[in-house]
Amino acid sequence: MENQIHHARQYTFHSLKLAKKQQITKNTFTLSFEIPADLRKNFQFEAGQYVGLKYYHHGELYIKDFSMTNAPHEEGIVLGIKINSEESSVRELFEQYSEGDFIEVSEPKGRFTIVSKPHEFRTIVGFAAGIGITPLLSHFKHILHTEPRTRLFLFYGNKDRESVAFKDVLDDLQRQHSERLEIHYFYSREKIGDPLSEGRLDEKKLHLIINQILHLDDTDEESTVWDAVDEVLICGKGPMIKSIANACHQHGILKNNIHFELFEEYNEDIYPVEVEFPLVENIRVSFRYNGKQYETVLENNKNKLLQSFSILKFPVPFSCKSGICGSCECRLQEGKVELLENEYLTENEEQKGSILACMSYALTDTIRLDFDNV
Hints:
This protein has 374 residues and is α/β, with parallel strands linked by helices. The protein has three domains: 104 residues, Elongation Factor Tu (Ef-tu), domain 3 (Beta Barrel), CATH 2.40.30.10; 140 residues, Nucleotide-binding domain of ferredoxin-NADP reductase (FNR) module (Rossmann fold), CATH 3.40.50.80; 90 residues, Ubiquitin-like (UB roll). The protein has seven helices and 19 strands. The strands form four sheets. It has a seven-stranded antiparallel sheet. α4 packs across α5.
C-alpha cells in the first residue's frame, strides 16, 4: 500500500546512492543501493525485512516500504518494486531517478523473520503471489546459504509466465541447489496444459499441492513431506494470505509456525475471531501521536480501535491493518482492551503494555494510548 507521510511512523532515514536500476518485467523493477562504510551497521538486516523510501509524487511527499530481495550476506540493499497502475506513485521512482542519484532510505525494519537453525534438518515451505516473492527470495537465499540441512519448497503464483518476477534468479538458485530446493509455478490467467499449475494459490490448491506434490517423502517412507514441514512463509495480497494460512492451520501446521507479510492494506482478520466480549458504549479515548494529544468519544466497541480512528479521520499510523506490520503499535496507559492474535508483538512486549490498535477492542469506557513511546 502506498502511504503518504502522515500515515507512517517516523523512522531514521539516510541518503543512499542508487547504484543500479533494472527493469525485470513489464511492470517490475529493482533498485540497488550502495551502503557506505560508516552506515553498514545501520543497514544490517535479517532476511524478510524491508526499508522505506522517501520520494515525491505530484508534489506530495510519500513514504513507501519495499522488501529486500538480497540476503544479509550479499552486498548492499536490493529492492523489488512493482508498478500496479499508471497512477501509481512508484512509477516516479522508476522514471525520475537514475543511477548515481541519492534517495532517502530508512533503516531496515519488519518482523517477517524466522530463527536460523543451521545445525538442524528442516523443511520450509513458501507461498508467494506476484511481487510477494521479494521477501521470500531473501529468505530462501539466506537459508540456502546458512542451513545446509534444510530443504525448501516454493509455490509461486502469477497471472501468466510473462509476469513472473525474478524467474532467472530463481532458476539459478534451483540449479545450484537442486537437491534441496524445489520450485513450482502457478498461473491464474494462462492455460499451460497442466491443471495443477493453473489457477490461484488458495485453500483448494493447497489441498492438491499436499496430495500431489508433497505426498511422498524420500527421507521417511512412513510419512509425507507435509508431515515434516517446520515453517511456512506466505506473502501476497490479503485474501491469498488468509486462504493459505487458514488452510495450512487446518492441515496441521501450528499458527506460530505460519509466518506472513502483507503488501497492502487489508481490513479483515487473517484468522477467525474466536473471542466474545461485552458491549461497551460511550468510550472516552485519548492518545498521543507525533507529539500531539487527541481526544474523542467512541459510540461503542463494535469496531477495533484503529478502525474507529480511521472512520473519525484521525492521523494515526497504519499500514496492513491486520496485525502483521506493527505500524500501529502503541502503549496502553489506561483502560483494558481485547488484543487479538497477531504476528507482530512478543509476549514480553504485551506484558509491558504494548498493543496493536488494529487488533484491539476496547473493554472499558476509558482508554488512553501513546503511539510515540513504545
